[in-house]
Amino acid sequence: MNEYIAATIIAAHGRHYLADADGAKLQCVTRGKKTNVAVGDQVRLLMTSPNQGVIEKIDERASLLYRSDQYKSKLLAANVTQLFIVVATEPGFADDLISRALVAADAAGIEARIILNKTDVVAALDKTRERLQPYAALGYPIHEVSARTRPEEAVASLMPLLRGQASILIGQSGMGKSSLINLLVPDAEIAVREISAALDTGKHTTTFTRLYHIGGEPDTVIIDSPGFQEFGLYHLSEGMLERAFREFAPYLGGCKFYNCRHLIEPSCAVLAAVEAGQIARMRHTLYGQLLHESAQTLY
Ligand SMILES: Nc1nc2c(ncn2[C@@H]2O[C@H](COP(=O)(O)OP(=O)(O)O)[C@@H](O)[C@H]2O)c(=O)[nH]1
Ligand SMILES: [Mg+2]
Ligand SMILES: [Zn+2]
Question: What pTM was computed for the model?
């Protein structure tokens, strides 16, 4: 006894976690009041009863995705290799949220892709493609699907991208994220009910992040995170922020002042690129907004 058990965190609800140890689902908690565990973490458990344990150790992470404001940070997922942002032709999506998610992915060193769902809503298709053009121009792949009218095609085009990867899907509500998850993870709804019961989240709660193994391969996982409206990036330093906007890269170092913040400084290469139309103004505005948010302190 008292041996550590290696497990993967597959769901989180407050300080209650569900871990998977070679197929066995184990409820676990952190020591004390810690909330430093994320879905996707590889952990070591000490069992306190046959199916309950305490998380004693978190293995080193290959990546960590999180959002934060000045008061708290919220871990989204650990060890993911790519981020999918689900948008749709309708309802409209928020550019702000897309850009923030892309910045978070770049800062975490993981790939980001955009899924454009509901291509069957043809009336809104051209306009939506146009709105996504700036992201395509930045090199973020855009995958068009219709979960409702062309489900087999959606699976066929997404599965090869998912294989061998740990992917997280995020999106505003209404974009069709659950529809896509249900296509990609055939028993997702059953799994959610089981997890919900094990974590005692109460009826109908889908406000927890969970991890599914798909395709019968141990290293192909997909993480579904609840929809959210805010994506704070308070934890990113100024240096991290300027590097997370990938289109700034050719201009960094070209400013007159070595510590240029690219906001109002004279002879700023980034501002010049904005004026010349080489950097989208919308993205530079968000950069300024994120710098401003990062500079907020509690007092
Ligand atoms: N027209 C159309 N509607 C879709 C498609 N995919 C999902 N929906 C609908 O969009 C609504 C929101 O879908 P849901 O999967 O719950 O979105 P979520 O909030 O992002 O999880 C539901 O009414 C779905 O039936 C699609 O490809 N085309
Ligand atoms: Mg949903
Ligand atoms: Zn500058």
Answer: 0.93
